[in-house]
Design a protein that fits this description.
This protein is an alpha/beta fold. It contains 26 helices and 14 strands. It has five domains: 22-142 and 197-273, no CATH class; 281-339, no CATH class; 359-502, FHIPEP family, domain 1 (Glutaredoxin); 505-582, Helicase, Ruva Protein, domain 3 (Orthogonal Bundle), CATH 1.10.8.540; 585-695, 3-Layer(aba) Sandwich (Rossmann fold), CATH 3.40.50.12790. The protein has helices at residues 2-6, 8-18, 21-36, 41-64, 74-99, 104-113, 118-167, 173-224, 230-263, 272-280, 283-295, 304-342, 352-356, 384-399, 472-477, 485-499, 501-504, 507-520, 522-525, 535-547, 555-565, 572-581, 584-591, 605-613, 628-647, 658-668; strands at residues 364-368, 406-410, 418-423, 426-432, 438-442, 453-456, 463-467, 480-483, 597-603, 615-616, 623-624, 653-656, 676-679, 688-695. The strands form four sheets. A four-stranded mixed β-sheet has the order 2-1-3-4, covered by helices on one side. It has a four-stranded antiparallel β-sheet with strand order 6-7-5-8. β3 and β4 form a beta hairpin. 28% of the residues are buried.
């Protein structure tokens, strides 16, 4: 047994026969056999019975599914059953021509259904072909073509709707991927159905040709090979051929009907029968139809009994439908009353468990007035949800920060055109938007004014003017930068997130980032967190970096620096400074100009000495032990140097010794949040430095 199990060939055979794919292989072999090998009449009967059973099963399957995608393999099944039917047709024709016999099923169709009259059989066969080809196949093919076109046209909108739901927090990433796969599968299905309908049409044409050829071949065989006269040969072979055609085409008609049902089927939560009954069970329609049919009894010459039976049946149906609806309504009323008695304050949190749900605060919220609600319209070409997706990509690329879900709510307490941005439940900024206008922001050399509503650009506090769209060209010619309300709000959100990035970096988010790195680079995490530093300490390090707008995207590199320095200190402030020393290239490339020049100002030697002498350790890192008056003078003089650099169009950068950098940043961060404080060691090699002034105090 061990030798056999190790034999690769036997193992492959065992795997193949245990697989469900073996059924497909056997089916293809059977179809090829039908085309090539003469079959006894018993096997012909078996194959015909199997074809009829399979067609009935497919028809029933299409009625019991609740949506077309539950039978997504139908186009492939349609092709396979068409090939099977053609194979059976060829096998029957071969048996008729060789033996003048096609089995009991064909004989029964020839004698019982068409009464042994081949002329009746020809007429009946042609009628069935007209029904199948002209009515069912053409209609189903057209519906499949239109459905495929509409499905493909709707794909971008559905994909954007999925992105919008994910941005709004309605679904997670896994659910979004699942819904995207469903959209792609739906498009593939209707595209395949559009092509598969051509197989059914081709099968109908082939059936007619096979019947004609077989009748002619049968007459020739009877006359030449068996010595029959032409009429006897026509009677014998035509009867068998028509019977065979009916035996094969009736299953084909069932499959065509199934194709029509599945392409015209809309998505619902119930089967076709349940849905039809629920929609056709209209008491008024049934009662009116019963009355109209009953009145037709009075028409002279019409038989009374059929109309009486139909009218009575419709009346009984109307009665039972009305009775069922009344019973269901009473049951629903009783249920609602019972629920009202059990939960008189439904919707209000009552139990401690309900109130605990209110403890969770969204990381970032956007509240809008009712006039701004059109900004979140899914059907609009440009909407806020798509802008938030772009913001998320931008922040990840620039800072390595994963923007949490932005909760968007309408707040009737706000002014109609107002909005406000909250971080962890606290309002951080607000603004107003005029949806029917554009915001014009003047450039540095603009002197001409334009008519409009004076306002302030909310993200950077610049003076601006709301203008009409017709005035955009004139404003741009005068040097104004013109943006739409979507850009104003998205820029404002981006700046608020940048300024409060440390508050958005939660422990859970840091843990998820570590989990992602552990999958690709486990050595970077193992032995560092939590062995050397805790998760909270790593979070504090990353927050310190984000507080000065340093990217934390290279978390692997940050962990390596932390691992190298954690044996000396676990102070997040000191470790963050160590990380900064390895980011000289990033810092320099961020602030230098096109000529590779870094424009800065520095400390005067006297002030640098005083600050160095007053440097002392503190609980939250190093700080200066100086009096309030000196601190106020330092901040004021630093602000003057910042203003001088800003007037020249440069970033406000203070260059100082490494040991003073963190303490000075802590000193001025409240009063001068836009000041960039760099250490000499944080300037990359090759970067030129130009000093434009010094901070000096008396």
């Amino acid at each position: 047994m061990t030798t056999l199990s190790r034999n690769p060939f036997l193992h492959t055979l065992q795997t193949m026969f245990r697989s469900k794919d073996i059924a497909m292989i056997i089916s293809l072999v059977v179809i090829v056999g039908l085309l090539l090998i003469p079959l006894p009449t018993f096997l012909v009967d078996v194959m015909l019975a199997f074809s009829i059973a399979l067609s009935i099963g497919i028809l029933l399957m299409t009625t019991f599914i609740s949506e077309p995608m539950e039978f997504s393999v139908f186009p492939t099944v349609l092709l396979l059953i068409t090939l099977l039917r053609l194979g059976i047709n060829i096998a029957i024709m071969r048996s008729i021509l060789l033996n003048a016999d096609a089995g009991k099923i064909v004989e029964t169709f020839g004698n019982l259904i068409i009464g042994g009259d081949y002329i009746v059989g020809v007429v009946l066969f042609l009628i069935l072909m007209i029904i199948q080809f002209v009515v069912i196949n053409s209609g189903a093919g057209r519906v499949a073509e239109v459905a495929a076109r509409f499905t493909l046209d709707a794909m971008p909108g559905k994909q954007m709707a999925i992105d919008a739901d994910m941005n709004a927090g309605l679904i997670d990433e896994h659910q979004a991927r699942k819904r995207r796969r469903a959209v792609e599968s739906e498009a593939d299905f209707y595209g395949a159905m559009d092509g598969a309908s051509k197989f059914v049409k081709g099968d109908s044409v082939a059936a007619i040709i096979i019947i004609v050829v077989n009748i002619l071949g049968g007459v020739a065989t009877g006359v030449v090979s068996h010595g029959m006269d032409a009429m006897t040969a026509l009677q014998s072979y035509a009867l068998l051929t028509i019977g065979a055609g009916l035996a094969v085409q009736i299953p084909a008609l069932l499959v065509s009907a199934a194709a029509g049902l599945i392409v015209t089927r809309s998505t619902s939560e119930s089967s076709l029968g349940t849905e039809l009954f629920s929609q056709l069970s209209n008491t008024r329609v049934l009662a009116a139809s019963s009355a109209v049919i009953g009145l037709m009894i009075l028409i002279p010459g019409l038989p009374k009994i059929p109309f009486i039976l139909i009218s009575g049946g419709l009346g009984a149906a109307a009665y039972f439908v009305n009775k069922t609806a009344s019973t269901e309504l009473a049951a629903q009323t009783d249920t609602l009353e019972m629920l009202d008695q059990q939960r008189p304050m439904a919707g209000e949190p009552e139990s401690p468990e309900d109130m605990l749900e209110m403890v969770v605060v969204d990381p970032i919220e956007l509240e809008i007035g009712y006039s701004l609600i059109p900004m979140i319209d899914d059907d609009a070409q440009d909407n806020l949800l798509r802008r938030i997706t772009s913001i998320r990509r931008q922040l990840m690329s620039e800072m390595g920060l994963i923007l949490p879900v932005v909760r968007i709510r309408d707040n009737l307490r706000l002014q109609p055109q107002a909005y406000r941005i909250k971080i962890r439940g606290q309002e951080m900024s607000n603004g107003e938007l005029l949806m029917d206008r554009l915001l014009a922001i003047p450039g540095p050399e603009v002197d001409d004014t334009i008519p409009g509503v004076q306002t302030t650009e909310p993200a950077f506090g610049l003076p601006a003017i709301w203008i009409y769209e017709s005035e955009q060209g004139q404003a741009e010619l005068k040097g104004y930068t013109v943006v739409n309300p979507f850009s104003v709000l998205s820029t404002h959100i981006t700046e608020v997130v940048r300024n409060h990035a440390p508050d958005l970096l939660s422990r859970q988010l840091v843990q998820e980032m570590l989990n992602q790195i552990r999958k690709k680079s486990p050595a970077s995490v193992d032995g560092v967190v939590p062995e050397m530093i805790t998760l909270g300490e790593l979070q504090a390090i990353l927050r310190n970096l984000l507080r000065e707008r340093l990217p934390v995207r290279d978390l692997v590199g940050i962990l390596e620096v932390v691992a190298n320095n954690a044996a000396v200190t676990r102070d997040p402030n000191i470790l963050a400074e160590a990380v900064r020393q390895t980011m000289a290239n990033t810092l320099s490339s961020t602030y230098r100009d096109e000529s590779n020049m870094l424009h800065v100002f520095t400390f005067a030697p006297q002030l640098e000495g005083r600050l160095r002498n007053s440097l002392a350790p503190a609980e939250n890192g190093p700080g200066f032990q100086i009096d309030a008056m000196l601190a106020q003078q330092v901040v004021a003089k630093t602000g003057e140097q910042m203003e001088n650099l800003a007037k020249q169009g440069y970033f406000p950068i203070l260059l100082c010794p490494r040991e003073l950098r963190l303490a000075f940043r802590r000193l001025v961060e409240q009063a001068l949040p836009n000041l960039v404080v760099l250490a000499f060691s944080e300037v990359s090699p090759g970067t030129r430095v130009k000093a434009h002034g010094m901070v000096a105090v008396e």
